[in-house]
Write a structure and sequence with these properties.
Two copies of one chain form a homodimer. With 452 residues, chain A is of the alpha/beta class. The first copy, chain A, is 39% helix and 23% strand. In chain A, the strands form four sheets. A seven-stranded mixed β-sheet of chain A has the order 4-3-8-17-18-19-20, with helices on one face. In chain A, strands 1-7-2-5-6 form a five-stranded mixed β-sheet, with helices on one face. In chain A, strands 9-10-11-12 form a four-stranded parallel β-sheet. In chain A, helix 2 crosses helix 15 and helix 3 packs parallel to helix 4. The first copy, chain A, starts with a strand and ends with a helix.
Chain lengths: 452, 452
C-alpha cells in the first residue's frame, strides 16, 4: 500500500520514501531485528533505520509503504549467474554433463547468442530477479554490454563480466578480442551508479596463462572485479593436475592471478591448503548449491570457507542448471545441504545463510560499502517479503522464515538505489508483457537450434 | 476462469466439469502429455482425458475451467507428514536433534497438543496443502480423529494414522489406549470416500514387540494401512543393533510385522539386504528429502529402492523439520539430492520425481486404484499449475518445469474427488481468515510453552 504524504510538519526532514510497520531485518553489525521497524529513504540512500515512532518523529515521507505483515530486508545479492541463459531453462535436464553441453547448450549458444538474444534473455532474467527480490547480480556471459544496459534500464544493480575464453565464442574470435570488449565495457560503465564492469576469464582450464594474466592486468588497470569459475568439478582438478601438477587454486596462485578483486564461483573441489591460499589472497567465493547439485558437481566446503574468514556469497548460476534465479531457494539449499553434508544440523544456520545472500555476497563482490545491509549511508536496496499467508503462519522467527519458508514470489516490493522497481508485486520498471512475448518468440529459435 | 455451460447439444454427455486448454500431464501408463489437452469430470470421477476437440465433441460441461497457460496434472500425494505440527514451524531450527526435541518440540507438544490444537493445526496445514496442490496426505499424530474430520470437512483426501508409542502421549497413557483409539478411528472412517484410517506405530525403537504386533493385527483385522518411521537415523540403527542384533528392517521382518500395507517413512539407513526384504514384503517407502537434510539424518538410497521395484512416494514430513508442506519442493529436492549423492545427473530425473509425487505415492499408500494419475475411472483429484510468469518462461518441457521451477504457489486450481477446493487461488473449501486467526492465537500458547 502506497499513499501520498500529507502536509509536512516543522522540524522533520522530508524524505522520498518511508517503509514502516514491518519487521526490519537489518543485517547490520549487531544483526538487529526491529519488530516493528521502519526505514527512511531519501533519493538513493537509506537515511534512517529505527522504530516506526522514531522514524515518524524524524522524517516526513513523500511516499509511504505499509509493510505490515511483511519482513523488510536488504535486497538479495546473486554473486554468480548467466542471466541470458534463462532462454535455455528446461531445454534439457537430467543428462550427463558432456551430453547436456554438447547436444544442447553449446549448439543452442552457437546458433542463438547475439546481442538481441542477450538483451531479451537478460530482460527476462531481470523480471524474474525483480519479482524474487534480487537487487544485485554478478553476471558472466557474452555481449555483456547488453547485460549492463538492460540492468541499467531496469534499475537493477549489476556486476557485468565479459567472458574471456580460449576458443571462438559468439562475440569474439579470440581472447584478445574479448579483452578489448571487456576494456570497452569498463569504459562504458566507469563511475556508473548501478553497473560495475568486470572481466570474466571463464576458468583456469579454458584460458591459458597469458590470457589469465591479461585479465588480471585489465582488472588492476581499471580497478574492476574478476569473475571466474574455479574448481567446479573433479574433472577440472584432474585436468589441471595433469597439465600443471597443481590444483586449480594453486595454479592461479602460482601465476600471480589471485587477489581481493577475484570472485571465484563454485570452489567445490579444494583442499584445506587451497582454502588457506584463497583466504590469504582475499578472494571472494560464490557458492551455488543448486547448480552444484543439479549438475552433480559436488558440495563446496562452505563451513570451512567461513571458518577461514573468507567472504562467501550465494549464487543461482544460470537458469539452465538451476532452473530459476530464486535466491531464497539458494539460501534454503545452502542451509539444508551443509547440514546433510556435515551430518550436523548446526552447520549452516538460517542467519548464516541470510548473511551469505546479503552482506556476504556484497563483500565478495566488493560492494559492501554500498549494499548488503540496511544502514544509514548505504544505498537503498530493499525488499519486503510477505509473511501473511498460511505457509508463513505462525511466525516465531523472521530469519528462520526467510530461509526455510519464503520464496521469491513472496516478495511484495523491490527497491534498488531508492527506486521502486516492483510495488505490491506489480513490476513498474519494465514492460512485463512485452518482455515475455519477446522471450517466447526467441524460444522458438532456441527450439529449432537443438532440433538437429 | 470458470463459466457456466450453455445449452446442451444432443448426443453429448452432460458432465459436471471440464478442464480444457492446458497441457495435460496424465501420468497414465504411457505417460502421455497432451498439449493442449482436456479433462472431463463427472461428480467424483474422471470420465474423459483427451484432446480438447474430442472432449468438447463428447461432453457438455456444467462448469468449465480454462487452463490456458497452465499444466493440468494429478493432485500431489504427500506420503508422510504430521499436519498439526505446522504450529511448530520455525519454532526452533539449526539445533542438534536432541536439543531441538527436548528443549522445544517435546515441551511444546506436552503443553499444547489437545483436540483443539490438532484441529486448528490441521486446518492451517490443509489450507497450505490446498494452496500448494496436495490432494492426498498421510498423517501420523495424536487425536487423529480430528485430522480425519478436518480433512473431510475441507474435502482433502487423507490417510490418518493414530500414533502408537511406548510412553504416555497427549491422547493416551499407554499403547493399549492408543490402539483402542486407532480402532475407533477405523470404525469412524470405514467406507469413507475420502478418509482412510490407519494405525501408526511410531518406530521400531519406540514401541515394543507386542505393541508392533498388535498394530499389525489391527491393520489385518480392518484392512487398514500401517504408517511407521523406519531407519531414519544412524542412531536408530545403532540402538536396534544393540538391543536385538538386527537392523530396524531385519527386526521388523523377524517379528512378522512387514507386509504390503506398511508405509515406511524415511528408510535412510538400510542395507542392500534390507532393501530386498522391504521389496519382498511389498512395503511402500515415504521419502522425505528436505526433512532428512534439515535434521542431517542422511540420504535414503532412492535409486536403489526404485531399481528393486519398490513403490516410493515423497513426503514433506512435519513442518517443524521442513519448514513447509510444499510437495513441489519435495520433488525438486529429490531430483537434486540424488544427483549429488550419486554424482550422476541422470540419477533421479524430473519424470521420476513427478512419478514419485503422484502415482508412486498413491501406490505406496495403496490408493493407486483411486488416484495418482489422470485416467477415466479414477477419482478427479486434479491440480492446475500456472506456467505463464517470467520464472516459467520459456517452457520447453512441462515435466521439467513442474519439478525444477514450479512451486506450490503456482497452483491455480485444486480439485479433490471432483470438488473444486481452490479456484484461481481462492480457497473455497475453508474460511481462510478464520483459520489463520485461530492459528495465530494458538501460536501464543506455543510460544509460552517453550519459554521456560
Amino acid at each position: 500500500m502506497v499513499r501520498a504524504g500529507g502536509p509536512q510538519p516543522v522540524g522533520r526532514r522530508a524524505v522520498s520514501l518511508v517503509i514502516t510497520g514491518g519487521t526490519v531485518v537489518t543485517i547490520d553489525p549487531a544483526r538487529r531485528v526491529l519488530s516493528p521497524g521502519a526505514l527512511a529513504i531519501d533519493g538513493a540512500d537509506i537515511v534512517g533505520v529505527a522504530r516506526p515512532e522514531e522514524i515518524s518523529a524524524r522524517f516526513t515521507a513523500g511516499q509511504t509503504i505499509d509493510a505490515s505483515g511483511q519482513v523488510v530486508l536488504p535486497g538479495l545479492v546473486n554473486t554468480h549467474t548467466h542471466a541470458a541463459m534463462v532462454m535455455f531453462r528446461g531445454l534439457a535436464d537430467d543428462l550427463a554433463l558432456m551430453e547436456w553441453l554438447e547436444r544442447y547448450i553449446f549448439p543452442a549458444e552457437a546458433r542463438t547468442v547475439s546481442p538481441e538474444m542477450v538483451r531479451v534473455g537478460t530482460e527476462l532474467a531481470l523480471l524474474e530477479m525483480i519479482r524474487s527480490g534480487t537487487t544485485t547480480f554478478a553476471d558472466m556471459y557474452y555481449f555483456e554490454e547488453e547485460v549492463g544496459r538492460a540492468a541499467k534500464r531496469a534499475g537493477v544493480r549489476a556486476v557485468v563480466g565479459e567472458t574471456i575464453i580460449g576458443f571462438p565464442v559468439p562475440d569474439a574470435k579470440t581472447p584478445a578480442e574479448s579483452l578489448k570488449r571487456a576494456e570497452d565495457l569498463a569504459r562504458e560503465f566507469a563511475r556508473d551508479p548501478l553497473i560495475v564492469a568486470a572481466v570474466a576469464p571463464h576458468a583456469p582450464y579454458t584460458l591459458d596463462r597469458e590470457g589469465l594474466q591479461a585479465c588480471r592486468s585489465l582488472s588492476d588497470r581499471f580497478a574492476i572485479p574478476i569473475l571466474i569459475h574455479v574448481a567446479e568439478t573433479a574433472d577440472e582438478v584432474r585436468t589441471m593436475r595433469e597439465r600443471f601438477g597443481l590444483s586449480p587454486v594453486a595454479y592461479l596462485a602460482s601465476i600471480g592471478f589471485l587477489g581481493p578483486r577475484i570472485v571465484a564461483a563454485h570452489g567445490v573441489w579444494v583442499s584445506q591448503e587451497d582454502i588457506a591460499t584463497l583466504g590469504r589472497s582475499g578472494v571472494g567465493i560464490a557458492h551455488n548449491p543448486e547448480s552444484n547439485m543439479k549438475l552433480a558437481s559436488g558440495t563446496a566446503p562452505v563451513p570451512r570457507y567461513l571458518a577461514a574468514g573468507l567472504n562467501v556469497g550465494l549464487g543461482t548460476d544460470g537458469a539452465a542448471s538451476n532452473n530459476d534465479l530464486d535466491m531464497f531457494e539458494a539460501m534454503r539449499q545452502a542451509a539444508l545441504l551443509h547440514k546433510l553434508e556435515s551430518r550436523d544440523p548446526r552447520a549452516i544456520g538460517a542467519s548464516v545463510a541470510l548473511d551469505m545472500a546479503t552482506i556476504g555476497g556484497s563483500r565478495a563482490l566488493g560492494l559492501d560499502k554500498l549494499v548488503g545491509s540496511l544502514e544509514p549511508g548505504k544505498r537503498a536496496d530493499v525488499i519486503t517479503v510477505s509473511m501473511a499467508g498460511p505457509r508463513q503462519t505462525p511466525m516465531y522467527n523472521a530469519v528462520s522464515h526467510l530461509v526455510y519458508v519464503s520464496r521469491g514470489d513472496d516478495v511484495q516490493n523491490t527497491i534498488v538505489n531508492g527506486r521502486i522497481l516492483m510495488r505490491d508485486r506489480r513490476v513498474l520498471a519494465m514492460d512485463e508483457p512485452a518482455v515475455l512475448a519477446a522471450a517466447r518468440k526467441l524460444a522458438e529459435k532456441v527450439r529449432e537450434a537443438v532440433k538437429q
